[in-house]
Amino acid sequence: MLLSAKSSLDLACDFCCNDASPVHSVGHRSAASYPGLIMPVPFFPHGPDPRRASLTYAPLEVPQGPSRARNEGEEDGDSPRMWVSPKADELTVSQLRKDYYRRVRQHALVERVSRFAVFLAESKYDPNHCHDFMRAAVQALCDGLGADSAYMLELVAEAVAFRVSAYAGRAIDTYEPKSGAPCPVHAQHASRAETAAGWALRSNHVVRVDDYAKEERFERESWPEQDTVRSAINMRVQGGKEPYGVLVAQSESPGRFCETDAIFVQTLANLVSQRLACARAEYHQRRMYEEFRRMMNAREEALSIISHDLRSPATTVKLSLEVLRRSLQGAAMSLSPEQIERAVTRANAGINRMMAMMDELLAMNRAEGDTFSLVRGPVDLREVVEAVLRELKEPIAASGSEICVDGPDSLVGQWDRIRVEQIVSNLLSNAIKYGEGKAIAVEFERCDSMAVFSVRDQGVGIDPENHRRVFERFVRVRAPGESDQDKQAQSLRDSNSYGLGLWIVKRVVEALGGSICLRSGLGAGSAFTVELPLSP
């Protein structure tokens, strides 16, 4: 039978005309002159996928005898025709059929990869909720290879264990991933105690097992569902700088997967890896932008608070001075010495308040610009604590808190005294402000080459969700569900603060080469612990 060069078998004709194929184009000849071989050629109404399409067969007459090369487009008769003729000693019908189905399968895999790539480009990814994303990848792997099952082994437990995060296959209705129970990663070398998935993870190569019954390199995974598996193919998925896990496809038939399947799995894994990297970068960029917006909003709010707070003591000073001026000018209403003293005291308090605000803002500016001028020298932590307690004597008395100091008589380190005083003063002021009049413990000790200093109160505490935020600028954490009375008390506590104290402490501690941590809970008080190296 003659086939038109423009027919629906373009794919078959293309591979038949390939230089690497022992199939040649020949001129038009009468079918009756060559009683050749008849080979059924499949048509695929629904695309070139042998597993999904219903097949319609048309006889292809393959003439025998010598071949004659024919120029492309050469006409013989009414229309362009093409004979596909094997050399008698080079090609058999079974080889032709096998090669044809291989080409069709490759075309189908390319189609699936293309569709999956489009899906990845259009999908949204959240690193914390990626089950649907991975499920689509596993389903594409299972469908593309015609595997009995496929799944994603995700790395958990600090990269020493796997868990099944997505599954697809014939047993999907009955398979349960055991609530994500981790499966151990085996030995780190390709030995009998090594699984194929574990080796794929470490080697970053496609690992194919043709028959587990004859396999000497790897063992099966130790899950009950793996007992009937005969062949498998595995490939690592990269999750940015670190591996994310392993894509696995399995079959109950031996020798199910070939080199073409290996290329497909590798391509699919590369697509998933690239999408993971891009999506995570986009996610972190979005988070950074949101964080930047939040910080800018907090800064604007703080600036408005600063302008308001500076106006309030300035007004007090102005009114007090005006009263004194009128009294000195002989106004009708003269002031007694007590009234003059009260006016001067109010003015002095307002000035002190404004100076404290300015000092806090200047400290923030220095910390923000990394302009610390550290002057290191021998500093006794016990002396610093006692000096700060004397300085905060009035606020401590007003709060009603009792300060309990526990530490050695002397603990000397090579630090900047002014900066260490800043750390101790801010932490103690914070404990006094939020300690609710209860006892405050100040402890310090030497631990190897570090000095450990902690301040612990028994006050309102901090929600664990806000532990990180308390070290940010312009942040004053509110307890969830607090009453109007609590809000009023909070407002009074915050009246002389812009939420910079703990941020400054963290910056100073880091400049000295140390670290700070917080242990706290709502209603359970707060404990701030600072570790400073005794020498730089």
UniProtKB/TrEMBL annotation:
Question: Which portions of the sequence form the region Disordered?
Answer: 59-84
- Write down the superkingdom of origin: Bacteria
Reactions catalysed according to its record: ATP + protein L-histidine = ADP + protein N-phospho-L-histidine
- Recite the UniProt keywords alphabetically: Phosphoprotein
Query: What sequence ranges are listed for the domain Histidine kinase?
Result: 305-536
Enumerate the InterPro entries for this protein: GAF, GAF-like_dom_sf, HATPase_C_sf, HATPase_dom, His_kinase_dom, HisK_dim/P_dom, HisK_dim/P_sf, Sig_transdc_His_kin-like_C
> Which CDD domains does the record match to this protein?
HATPase, HisKA
What EC number(s) are associated with this protein in UniProt? 2.7.13.3
Q: Offer an example of a GO molecular function term for this protein.
A: phosphorelay sensor kinase activity
- What protein is this chain from? histidine kinase
Native source species: Bradymonas sediminis
